[in-house]
User: Fold this.
Amino acid sequence: MTLHQIEPLPILASANETRSEALTVVAIIGVTVLTLAACLAAGLTFLRRYRRAEAATLQTRVAAAIAADVECSRVDVVTVAGPSASMPATVTLDGFVASAAIRDRALRRAEEAARRIEPHAAVIDHLTVEVDRVA
Assistant:
């Protein structure tokens, strides 16, 4: 008589253990995605606040440069920050000037001041020469 060793049957994981492992994996992935989304939202909020402050500084400096010239005193400076960090801010000059030479001087001063703050800033000319307005 010979004895045969009987191998035990493999024990399968219960359905509850498989579900709990799957839920753990789903929870880890969910927490990771939510964390990445929160970091992205915080970064975008920071960039928006930074762009607004940068645009305010740009407007102040350009307005000060133009106000230093007495003949350009009636020029209003409006600054708009770009919607994203990749788009430069724009500086709009609006108002009335006495001659085309003063208009050119105001534009040149605005461009120089804007380029010192932000090299890619765009200056938009909406200045009206009073001679053109009267005619």
